[in-house]
Amino acid sequence: MSEFFTQWLPHAGSALVFASAATVIVRRFIANRATQSLIFGSVFLACLVPLPEFSLSHYLRVLTGDLSITGFIILGLAACQSFRPGESGPKHAKLLAPALAIVLVSLVLYPTALGLTYFDLYAFGYYPIILGPIIFVLFASALWFGLTLSAVLLATGFLAFALGILESDNLWDYLLDPVITIYALYLVIKNRHQLTNFRVTQHHIEVMLAVTISTFLLFAIYLAKFNHDAFRHEFVIEDGFIEWCTVIVLFSTMLVCGKRFLILRRVRPPLFLTVTMLLTLLCLFGAGEEISWGQRLFGLETPDYLKDKNAQGELGIHNLVVEINGEEVKLNKLIFGTGLALALLIYLSVATPLYRKNDRVRSFFNAIAAPMPRNYHIAGYLLIVATVELLIDSSKRGEMTEFAGSIMFALNVIYPYNPEIFDPKKSL
């Protein structure tokens, strides 16, 4: 069955594209919907009719390429909506959300596929150990927010990839293609006045990031147990997706803190601004350390002194090895492991309860610009630590703590329990 689809779907896709294009042209001259439907069907079938050598779809395929599963569904729905009796024109409201997503993803994907960036996101589709969890995050989020069509497109594309019904071995080719990207861009431009209806709220961000943490932790547990080589050498590889996500999250948090400093610099006392700037620099330090300050990215050489003192022979400080009482100790474990865990424990179990119950403590933490955690932040921190330490059996599990912990830290800083202290219109 899969061989049948593999042989015929590309030709059906080319025929669908050509029939849709022909119908768009015909619609300008013929208003009758029944006639338009007849022309669409006739052109579609004509493209598939076997000729002495090849059908017309063989030649059209050279122009259109292979249509993705997403392309089949969207063009098919667009055709059905256009030919629906009693409609004055095609209704694209339901298609606008996935069309906008397709355009945004394509703006990132295709430049990387052409070698214009450091990453090649297209390569992730051949062995979707990273792309798979991302698809699930988007699928679950789409269902949560009622974007049923988007969820169906993701699920259908992934299922088709699992069954191998297209010739391509790349998951991206089941989800996107140039033709559907162009059509999606057309829909977005044509319906640009409706784009104001798409607003990303705090609730959207919190739900998506919570789903992201849960999905990747569960996937990490599975890989660490059943395919440890894939976990170690693909999932949490140096300069891989997990590491760069941590960098992007910390850098984004840094920008938020920096923006707060600029907005509040005239209405908050020096202590408040100093702590805000220190938090900004802390995020910058964390992001820089995560990628060794761009050493591998820019091909920088490690000084001889650091080569001897750094466990990985890199520029970063957190991998330095120091001697304490005659024993070599990694700063990573001493400060960023034990020290950070102790600080987090005090922050969650001592500072937070006191903040909520004692007015003087609350005033103190507000005065030093401390973003206090909400209940779900507290639960998130504890679940992340417990999950990674108890369920992920790998020496590289710390990468998952950094990944999930940085996301929860970002949520804590950006959406704190006490957001009013960062409002310039309100006093402390």
Write up what this structure looks like.
The chain is mainly alpha-helical and 428 residues long. It has two domains: 2-197, no CATH class; 202-422, no CATH class. The chain is built from 19 helices and two strands. It has helices at residues 2-27, 33-48, 56-64, 69-82, 93-113, 131-144, 148-163, 172-175, 178-190, 202-226, 228-235, 241-264, 270-290, 295-298, 304-309, 331-357, 359-367, 375-391, 398-414, and strands at residues 321-324, 327-330. It has a two-stranded antiparallel sheet. Helix 10 (202-226) runs parallel beside helix 18. The N and C termini lie far apart (68 Å). The relative contact order is 0.08. The mean pLDDT is 87.
Annotation field: number of helices: 19
Strand order of the largest sheet: 1-2
Mean pLDDT: 87
What pattern of helices and strands is seen along the backbone?
HHHHHHHHHHHHHHHEEHHHH
Notable traits:
2 domains; 2 strands; mainly alpha; 19 helices
Summary of the model, kept short:
With 428 residues, the protein is mainly alpha-helical. The chain has helices at 2-27, 33-48, 56-64, 69-82, 93-113, 131-144, 148-163, 172-175, 178-190, 202-226, 228-235, 241-264, 270-290, 295-298, 304-309, 331-357, 359-367, 375-391, 398-414; strands spanning 321-324, 327-330. It has 19 helices and 2 strands.
